[in-house]
Amino acid sequence: TIPLRRALSRSMLSGDSLRRSFRHAVVESSSLPPAERLIMYDACDSQEVSQSLGGSAGYRKRLDARRGNKPKKADNQRDVCTPFDHAAFNFSKISNQREILAVLPEYNILTNRFPLFPGHCLLTAKALVPQQLSATHLSAIVRLVSHSGFSAYFNSWCASASVNHFHCHLIDELPPVAQQRLVSGPRVLGEPTLRPAESSGSCYVFGASQLGLVGRAVSAMQAENQPHNLLFTPLHIYVWPKPLQRPARSFDLYPETVGGPELVGSFTVYTERDFAKLSAAAADELVRINTAPLPERLLSGGDDTRPATAPAAVEAASSSSDESDSEAGPPPKQPRTAVRACQSLDSLSLVKLLRSGSGLDELALPLALSKSCLNRSGGLEVS
């Protein structure tokens, strides 16, 4: 007899409770026929083959033929801001209400029937709205991630999303790209950003307190029909703008669309041939050709468009380092060292602390940020 499982409510929700509910759903599903399973399999069970790709980026490749049985999405997406279609599938139409792991005021957390990561589940809007980030969604994701210790990634329409009903993916790990050291990135609307030091693509990393700026960047990409993927960790938000069309070369290197899972550092294939073929060099090229710069008007804003130093939370480089930050010479050592310390110690230890369930009241997390802090960049109203 399978015990009944109640969906978690907001008052019950924590990282540990969500993990327990997920594990219960995995165990429950293991004894059911495939058509009735809440989760088809555990992505990290004994059938998964996972291997580091090597190289400086720290990416990994996975072999899991079971994921190949997932229904394929139609390749007819053209507009990032495609209106919601009530006739198409949406998450209010799930066949089994037991797929709901947790119930929040404006969202549900659902099982992901074909997971790619540990604890892989979905944050879905109760409102019937399209797959477009808004101020409300951004705020909700940041609060949930900071509270639970999970990470989250978002695929816009035209950037690997398969359901045009707002959702993002919750995963119970700090993925490979978030374990790279961070170095100075370009200014966005005059404000400093960071970038992963070993990533070959266009990636803009914002501090959690720059949520308003992230909102303005997302709005600009939506306005210019630029697909995008985002990663949310307890301390940072990673933004990957993308080209509208997947480069033909991408098909030669990798059989799947390059979306959130790949950009955060995990490449999954379904055959041994594709697994053997995939290399660190191929992964680096895939990230590079499947990303693009932010709209030019964002990069030309503000008084200073030179590469930025780290945000205030990280020790800034001295003004004398500007001359060395050129194409002819290596990046300045001081900000790289300071950012590395911030990333390698703060992010990883913060996730471990959140998972331990202790010390939450003492941490100044985005969950407790005031509206004025969240809106410091302007333009984004947080409810």
Fold and architecture overview:
By secondary structure, this protein is of the alpha+beta class. Helices cover 26% and strands 15% of the residues. The chain is built from 10 helices and 14 strands. It has helices at 15-30, 135-148, 211-223, 248-253, 260-263, 272-277, 280-289, 296-299, 333-356, 371-374, and strands at residues 8-9, 49-52, 60-63, 100-103, 107-111, 121-125, 151-155, 167-171, 182-184, 194-196, 204-207, 228-232, 236-241, 266-269. The strands form 3 sheets. It has a 9-stranded mixed beta sheet with strand order 1-4-5-6-8-7-12-13-11. A hairpin with a 3-residue loop joins strand 12 (228-232) and strand 13. It is globular. The termini are far apart.
Brief rundown of the structure:
By secondary structure, the protein is α+β, with helices and mostly antiparallel strands. The chain is 26% helix and 15% strand.
